Amino acid sequence: MQKNLMITALALLYLALCCTSVWAQVDPRDSVILESKAVAPSANPPDAAVLMGVWITNKDTISEFKLPLDETSLSGGAYLFLSYPRTFTGVVNPQTITLQWLTDLTSNQYDGVSPDRFTLIGDYNPGDLTTAEPPNAVRKLFWQIKFDTVTVSGPSGQVLFDSVRNNPSDRIEFRDLSGTRVQVHFLNSVFTITASDVREIHTGIVPREYALSQNYPNPFNANTRIVFALPEAGRATLEAFNLLGQKVGTLVDEYLSAGTKIVSWNGRDNRGAPVPSGVYFYQLRAGGFKETKKMLVLK
Predict the structure, then answer these.
(1) How far apart are the first and last CA of the chain?
(2) How are strands ordered across the β-sheet holding 259-265?
(3) Which positions of the chain have pLDDT values less than 70?
(4) Can you list the domains of the chain with their CATH numbers?
(5) Are strands 23-24 and 181-183 parallel, antiparallel or unpaired?
(6) Other CB atoms closer than 10 Å to residue 120's CB: what's the count?
(7) 144: left (phi over 0), alpha (psi -120 to 50) or beta
(8) How far apart are CA 157 and CA 94, in angstroms?
(9) d(CA 257, CA 195)
(10) Of 89, 218, 250, 275, which has the fewest Cβ atoms less than 10 A away?
């Protein structure tokens, strides 16, 4: 009996040693949370329409952070497009100076059709310990993943971001300074995406060239409409500026299909405050095309 118990104990000890050689013990202080609220349009960085916050908590100094994610459209044809270029610096807006020395992005499975998968990896410079991520006792905004645009087929839709779990090595993880992989608690996130204010006119007719029409009415008090033409699909931005060249409003900043579009502006800035009376400019940029026109606000 004692012999059997000893054999069992040795077997359990062997298994424990094998497991800890691969994974450190799960600790609730090691966690990754995705910010569940998308922000659009974004002012920082200016090339992103949506920023997804990645928050971490780590009890030990970590030398590597691996983040494989799976994006699935749950409803409404909702979809998020990764920013270009699809490099680490093109997709990630770091909120820390650590884990950026050796980075990689796997986007060969990110093809524009849901579900999509991509992996971000942050590493440190072994010759500079300040590039490793020190322990923190509270949640820390670590990275912001940048998405150029969003699409949705109805008034609103939902997108689920979850950890990829195809095999034991393909999962969210930390590595400590000894190289030991640390299992991480992960909270998936559902993004609710609302439809754009941009509407299609002349449905089914694709314009031959880019164009920006004069706003109507002009001058205007409470609201004006702007029509523009896109001969091909792509990202388009339409912004309003004051006489000093300062941007006061972002009317459009998203991926749009080819066609003739119309958008309204209520004469309010990006903070929601009404702009004062005066001369303003609005500028369309799309596919290498850029045109600016003048409009007058009268209160």
Answers:
(1) 93
(2) 199-201, 259-265, 224-230, 211-212
(3) 1-28, 36-49, 107-109, 111-113, 148-156, 165-169, 193-198, 202-204
(4) 26-194 (2.60.40.680), 199-297 (2.60.40.1930)
(5) parallel
(6) 20
(7) beta
(8) 28
(9) 14
(10) 89
With b for 16 or more beta-carbon neighbours within 10 A and e for fewer, the 209-236 pattern comes to ebebeebeeeebeeebebbbbbbeebbb
H or E stretch at 193: strand 189-194
% residues pLDDT > 90 (the chain) = 33
* Parallel, antiparallel or unpaired: strands 234-241 and 278-286: antiparallel
Separation of alpha carbons 108 and 85, rounded Å: 13
CA trace torsion 89, 93, 98, 103 (10° rounding): -30
Say whether 90 sits in a helix, a strand or coil: helix
CB 148 within 8 A of CB 49: yes
Give the rounded distance of the alpha carbon of 246 from its chain centre.
Answer: 26
CA distance 49 to 40: 5
Helices (H), 111-184: none
For 21-61, what is each residue's pLDDT tens digit?
A: 344 455 667 899 988 665 544 444 545 567 788 999 999 99
SS3 call for 18: helix
Closest CA to 57 of 187, 178, 168: 187
Structure-token pair, residue 78: 């909702």
What residue has token string 């069992």?
8
Residue 283, token pair as written in the block: 């500028």
Give yes or no for a cis peptide into 219 (omega within 30° of 0): yes
Cα 100-105-111 angle, rounded to 5 deg? 155
Closest CA relative to residue 290, chosen from 211, 213, 227: 211
**Helix (H/G/I), strand (E/B), else coil: 194:** strand
| Residue 298 to residue 222: CA distance in whole angstroms | 9
